[in-house]
Hints:
Elements: H1 6-14, H2 27-30, E1 33-40, E2 42-43, E3 49-56, E4 63-66, E5 71-72, E6 76-80, E7 83-90, E8 96-103, E9 105-106, E10 109-117, E11 126-134, E12 140-143, E13 153-157, E14 160-167, E15 173-180, H3 186-197, H4 215-220, H5 222-230, H6 242-253
Parallel strand pairs: 2-9, 7-15
Antiparallel strand pairs: 1-3, 3-6, 4-5, 4-7, 7-8, 10-11, 11-13, 12-14, 14-15
Helix pairs in contact: 3-6, 5-6
Amino acid sequence: xxxxxxxxxxxxxxxxxxxxxxxxxxxxxxxxxxxxxxxxxxxxxxxxxxxxxxxxxxxxxxxxxxxxxxxxxxxxxxxxxxxxxxxxxxxxxxxxxxxxxxxxxxxxxxxxxxxxxxxxxxxxxxxxxxxxxxxxxxxxxxxxxxxxxxxxxxxxxxxxxxxxxxxxxxxxxxxxxxxxxxxxxxxxxxxxxxxxxxxxxxxxxxxxxxxxxxxxxxxxxxxxxxxxxxxxxxxxxxxxxxxxxxxxxxxxxxxxxxx
Length: 259
């Protein structure tokens, strides 16, 4: 009779076979970084600004994108309208890095402060409030291509990304994409679920990799955890409530933050 290995015996006893993972990249220590090199402001009403970024670390095969859209390999973006942008770099790993770049309106309206209110998990209690500066008042405001309004606040928002547009009396415009979080807490809501159901003896508490007692390992496997808890294949020896599954999903959708 063929002898079973110690790992095979553990799998039979504790049922963690469904959670076997290939070694994953720990993005928190991977070293991929992005730096803002320069920006060129845009003339009012014209998309004639520019952004240049550079990257270090990773494997050197960089791809840059502006607000998740157009991408290139040199980190240079031209024909950019006034606004606040997120530039992202990726390489051949699952990791990425972001930097914020502001292209100002020459003699036009700019974004001042932006205040965000969390939406809540699967709720629509979110809000965005912006402050306009410079340019020529009065200002008007729009969100996601909707109609302009006089109020600088948008409420009853679910979690997600929104593009806010500000226009002044000279029809100068500037935009910024902002993310409304649902606000699910790792410390208060998600960590207890992982600790009590996944990071347990015989499974992800040192016996079965990855070790979910380490926060970095939870973060690097966050998408898999969301998928497997959502479809019921994780944890194998416990049943999570729908509320627990939703809290995990909301936390991952927020970016798996240490909050």
